[in-house]
Backbone:
């Protein structure tokens, strides 16, 4: 049996956007937009799809999501503090927000988190 967290509790909303890509963590911006996060900023969700013209996107705001991570240490399974890494993923950050981390793949540098 294979373990998968794909789609569990996932819900999304549409936002205006510019310069975001699928899989990137984002923050809420002005004018109902989803904006890229700078390093150390708190994120609200993960971009799931971007319209062909790049001006609208679907952002996953709840449920379990796989995200990339960077930094010297991998997130630990359980509750930990994370923030945006400025590269589209997350990083361990003592000043970040509390997140439940359910799985970590150190080879792929990804983590499954609860949004």
Residues:
């Amino acid at each position: 049996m294979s373990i998968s967290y794909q789609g569990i509790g996932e819900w999304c909303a549409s936002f205006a956007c510019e310069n975001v890509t699928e899989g990137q963590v984002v923050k809420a911006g002005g004018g109902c937009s989803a904006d890229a996060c700078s390093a150390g900023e708190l994120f609200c969700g993960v971009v799931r799809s971007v319209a062909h013209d790049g001006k609208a996107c679907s952002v996953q705001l709840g449920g379990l999501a796989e995200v990339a991570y960077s930094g010297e240490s991998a997130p630990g399974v359980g509750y930990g503090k994370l923030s945006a890494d400025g590269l589209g993923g997350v990083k361990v950050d003592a000043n970040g927000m509390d997140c439940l981390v359910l799985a970590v793949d150190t080879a792929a540098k990804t983590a499954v988190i609860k949004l």
In short: The longest strand covers residues 97-105.
